Amino acid sequence: MGPGPSDVASSVLRAMSQPLVGHLDPVFVNMMEEIKTMLRVVFQTKNEMTFPVSGTGSAGMEFCFVNLIEPGDDVIVGVNGVFGNRMVDVAERCGARVTKVESEWGRIIDAQQIREALQKVPKPKLVAIVHAETSTGALTPVEEISKLAHDAGALFLLDTVTSLGGCPVKIDEWQVDAVYSATQKCLSCPPGLSPVSLSARAMEVATRRKKKVQSWYLDVNLLSSYWGQERVYHHTAPISMNYALHEALRLVLHEGLEKRFRRHEENHLMLKRGLSEMGVGLASQEGHQLWQLNAAKVPEGVDDAKLRKRLLTEHNIEVGAGLGSLKGKIIRVGLMGETSKREKVEKFLAAFRAIAKP
Amino acid sequence: MGPGPSDVASSVLRAMSQPLVGHLDPVFVNMMEEIKTMLRVVFQTKNEMTFPVSGTGSAGMEFCFVNLIEPGDDVIVGVNGVFGNRMVDVAERCGARVTKVESEWGRIIDAQQIREALQKVPKPKLVAIVHAETSTGALTPVEEISKLAHDAGALFLLDTVTSLGGCPVKIDEWQVDAVYSATQKCLSCPPGLSPVSLSARAMEVATRRKKKVQSWYLDVNLLSSYWGQERVYHHTAPISMNYALHEALRLVLHEGLEKRFRRHEENHLMLKRGLSEMGVGLASQEGHQLWQLNAAKVPEGVDDAKLRKRLLTEHNIEVGAGLGSLKGKIIRVGLMGETSKREKVEKFLAAFRAIAKP
Question: What is the model's pLDDT at position A289?
Fold first, then answer.
């Protein structure tokens, strides 16, 4: 019940352990097409360039920036937790001039803050925010910020590592130009792949670059020939990880997105209610709290490390620690994908009550 | 029997499908240490910085270049196949000025060619060659080239994607400063990780850079805190892939390196003899032929695509096509790791005889 990897269904583990075929084998090529099709449904997009990058979520983040940014480009990044800061670092390594828009950890990035930043930096190449901040449990609304970015002529980039598969992510409706996620959160697949999607507008920027993409491994101009119809060998795709993702996506679609989101919401509300009855609140902003990641405040006088250790050793429950300015102040309880279950919430609340009740 | 992925032992598939633990869980941290220790044995090195990069072999290639190269550095790269050309592309994307040392595909890079290049470019930052060219089946001797590089004050980089685990790779004895490999060749593990090792000298270059490493995901200065003793969260490691690599390495060491190399040699010689009896030679340079990847010349009047298709559909044997200047002229028969078996060679020879015998 930490911030990921989440529990993985046994059928996903079974799929992953099937014998290997080649990365250009017709069986695998067919599977690649099915993965792309299922990812489009999950991302709610028609983007042709939708596929899993052969690395973990941070590789997907880097994929988006290296393909879209050239040295000297202005970039606005919303920072309200660990992953906003990571985007700043990645963008700067691409040579971007980064303007940070900061919120207190636990709070969202407000559209008004982006509006103000655009007055100082009126023509950015890109505006980037984190949809669901795994480090704080805050869910930033997307639509107005996307509109502001586009009105300024910028591309809009969204981190959906923790949101995808756990709450609505609407890439086309929200006009997101570049998005990355990860397999080990609400898709409940082992870590190792990063689903990404680029809009036609983003692809145009990537294909018309002046300078080659600084990463060969993540260059979408090369990857599109392997994941597209040409099937030109680029790198050897992680075959087994793709078997796993194929089955994990099948399970997501079998449950249905709406039903899955409702499940995540209900279990979150049950956890929140139970904690509240013990006088324990969430550290994330009211009205913008993630269903899949709950930043429970550590009660006064309780040592968070001891609390986590007792949860693990006495109750076999792993949760995450607070990071950065929330270190020692919260524990992070994940209810992601297969881990978002009523009985898990009950078990956690009973354990928490036994250990931490004032 | 293609150029990889090779067959994977059932115990490796079983290990890969074990339930997930967290990427900072003590059980996983202990496994990381064991993987590092076993990799050092396989690479025949004492290098502290020896671990698997969370990406496929090409990510390992990029890891080596992005950490060691800064814009404007001179680099000498041996090019005698696909992967030498890939190194040139990757190095140039890091801002290197690259001098290519080219050999005909199928031939090795000769130390004399490097000596001549060093007369034109006397102070390169790095000299890089491919040990075992998967595209041609040639094995370039390392020691003299390594010495020439060091005499010129350069670092020496070696691609061991196809050699590691199939023939001797002696990182310390050969004084290799940076090396990368892949899991899906002679280690017989699914693709998805790239074992790498950096010498103390290479680490000094990486830590004393003027400019930040252009890739956040592959920055060894950050990765060393996660794979080292601090265990600072960097990215979520591909847990299941590391389970698989742990078991695959255990099998390699259980067999023993010398015995494993002898097996690869014997099966290669048996294949070569069988082909020779049919009047079929290997396209790679005599005296420098890889044991694990055999570039069999396509007999006169035989269409290589039809030959490969009949091998696959009539005999259930997958082999690789020729690439670049060898396209249509060779088929690539892999005898890597679990695939290097006497009965596989026999089966292949019988099938080849049935289809292609003049």
Answer: 98
In chain B, residues under CATH classification 3.90.1150.10 are 256-356
Classify domain A257-356 at the CATH superfamily level: Aspartate Aminotransferase, domain 1 (3.90.1150.10)
pTM equals: 0.97
pLDDT tens digit string along B179-215?
999 999 999 999 999 999 999 999 999 999 999 999 9
Residues 93-152 of B with CB under 8 A from A: 93-94
Hey, are the CB atoms on A13 and B14 less than 8 Å from each other?
Answer: no
Q: Please, are residues B168 and B141 in contact by the beta-carbon 8 Å criterion?
A: no
- CA-CA distance, A335 to A267, in Å (whole number)? 7
Residue span(s) of chain A under CATH 3.40.640.10 come to: 10-254
- Residue of chain A with shortest Cα separation from B18: A13
Asked whether the ipTM of the predicted complex exceeds the cut of 0.85, the reply is yes
Comma-separated ranges of CATH 3.90.1150.10 domains in chain A: 257-356
- Whether B88 has its CB under 8 Å from any CB of chain A: the answer is no
Q: Return the CATH superfamily for domain B256-356.
A: Aspartate Aminotransferase, domain 1 (3.90.1150.10)
Vertex A56, ends A107 and A28: CA angle to 5°? 135
Reported as a single tens digit per residue, the pLDDT across A56-78 is 999 999 999 999 999 999 999 99
Instruction: Specify the CATH class of B10-254 in words.
Output: alpha beta
pLDDT at A358: 55
Q: Side chain identity at B78, as an amino acid letter?
A: G
Query: pLDDT tens digits, residue range A97-131?
Result: 999 999 999 999 999 999 999 999 999 999 999 99
Residue B358's pLDDT band, with cuts at 50, 70 and 90, is: low
Closest chain A residue by Cα to residue B7: A20
Query: Could you give the CA distance from residue B46 to residue B24 in angstroms, rounded to a whole number?
Result: 25
Mean model confidence pLDDT for chain B = 96
Contact B212 A14 (CB under 8 A): no
Of A17, A56, A93, the CB nearest to B16: A17
How far, in whole angstroms, is CA B271 from its chain's centroid? 22
The long-range contacts involving B224-228, CB below 8 angstroms and separated by at least 24 positions, are B224/B49, B227/B32, B227/B36, B227/B49, B227/B51, B228/B48
* Residue reference for tokens 């014998």: A19
Interface of A with B in 245-264 (CB under 8 A): none
Interface contact A20-B213, CB threshold 8 A? no
Q: Where do the DSSP E strands lie in A103-223?
A: 126-130, 132-133, 138-139, 155-159, 178-180, 194-198
* SS3 letters across chain B: CCCCCCCCCHHHHHHHCCCCCCCCCHHHHHHHHHHHHHHHHHHCCCCCEEEEECCCHHHHHHHHHHHHCCCCCEEEEEECCHHHHHHHHHHHHCCCEEEEEECCECECCCHHHHHHHHHHCCCCCEEEEECEECCCCEECCCHHHHHHHHHCCCEEEEECCCCCCCCCCCCCCCCCCEEECCCCCCCCCCCCCEEEEECHHHHHHHHCCCCCCCCCCCCHHHHHHHHCCCCCCCCCCCHHHHHHHHHHHHHHHHHCHHHHHHHHHHHHHHHHHHHHHCCCCECCCCCCECCCEEEEECCCCCCHHHHHHHHHHHHCCCCEECCHHHCCCEEEEECCHHHCCHHHHHHHHHHHHHHHCC
Q: What is the arithmetic mean of pLDDT over B321-344?
A: 96
Region A295-301 average pLDDT: 94
Position A231 confidence tier, pLDDT thresholds 50, 70, 90? confident
- Pairs across A and B, CB distance < 8 A: 154
